[in-house]
Amino acid sequence: MSRTLGATVRLLGGAVILGYVVWRLGTGPFVDGVRAVDVRSVVLAAVLCALTTTCAAWRWTVVARGLGITLRLPQAIAASYRAQFLNTVLPGGVLGDVHRGVRNGREAGDVPRGLRAVGWERVAGQAVQVLLAVAVLLLIPSPFRHVMLAVVGAAAAAALGLALAVRFIARTNTGRTGRLLRIAAADVRYGVLARGAWPRVVLASVVVVAGHAATFLVAARAAGTTESTVGLLPIALLVLLAMSVPTNVGGWGPREGVSAWAFAAAGLGATQGLAVATTYGVLVIFATAPGAIVLIADRRRERTDPSRPQPVRPTMAAHGVRP
């Protein structure tokens, strides 16, 4: 499948989910969700976004350093805001991250390594998010608890099988596939699982997940949900997992579908779940708006300084493995 076709399929997937939700629940919950946004919720979302963006940027600098790329925290924060804004307004939910990976790679003189640093930073964050979601869904009573053991067992078996397959291929395959797998293994070893890296990656990821969950709770309260925080937490983590699926239209699609389903399963009403997801989406747009300022500033800087020197390619590759 070509990249263009894959992107089109992912976009259509998000559109289909969103269309189905509108067909079943109408546009009323969307209107209610937008109307629920107020100054207090916007301020809280902006503060939480600043915290999560800083922690995610810190995680990125840690992983990038392990891969041999120097990345200053202020630079990473600005790029992360820009990426989040692009992820919010562009289809797919990952184009902003691709942009920051390419840009950082160019500045470091190694675009493939820059992309890999962003990719592994995202993967590490998603792994911690999945583990936290599983823990919460198993520990806190909810309508979703009875299916979690089966899901955990299947995921663990799949992960183990994949790890064994990757290790076997990396050791026995001398072609392009084996080479790529050896590069990936080196990236994980030095960028994510290094002794000084993984505690920081885990800490940053936990704070990021907690911040996003707190933002969802802010949206729920603004939309009029009276369910307890403990009752809403499993739903919040399920919705966060849905948001990590790169099949959406400007961030909309799976989030709204899963939120409506989860609220209905919890006895809180699908329309309420859709309204909360809408409020969350609007809050995210406001909270990531500084990314638009960063993007505009970048464009102006490029126009006023078109003769910026090109970065010099490093003479040594990290881990002794070249892309």
Describe the structure.
The protein has helices at residues 3-25, 28-35, 39-66, 73-89, 95-108, 111-139, 145-172, 176-192, 198-222, 229-243, 254-265, 270-287, 290-304. The model is unreliable at 309-323 (pLDDT under 50). It has 323 residues and is mostly helical. Helix content is 77%, strand content 0%. Helix 1 runs parallel beside helix 11, helix 3 packs across helix 8 and helix 3 (39-66) packs across helix 12. It has one domain.
Task: Quickly count the helices.
Answer: 13
| Share of residues in helices | over 70%
Number of strands: 0
Main sheet properties: none
- On the 0 to 100 scale, the average pLDDT is 84
First-to-last CA distance: 23 Å
Q: Report strand %.
A: under 5%
Q: Overall 3D geometry?
A: globular
Structural category:
mainly alpha
Q: How is the secondary structure organized here?
A:
Elements (H helix, E strand, L loop, with lengths): L2 H23 L2 H8 L3 H28 L6 H17 L5 H14 L2 H29 L5 H28 L3 H17 L5 H25 L6 H15 L10 H12 L4 H18 L2 H15 L19
Helix pairs in contact: 1-11, 2-12, 3-4, 3-6, 3-8, 3-9, 3-12, 4-5, 4-13, 5-6, 6-7, 6-8, 6-9, 6-10, 7-8, 9-10, 9-12, 10-11, 11-12
Please supply descriptive tags for the structure shown above.
323 residues, mainly alpha, 13 helices, disordered C terminus
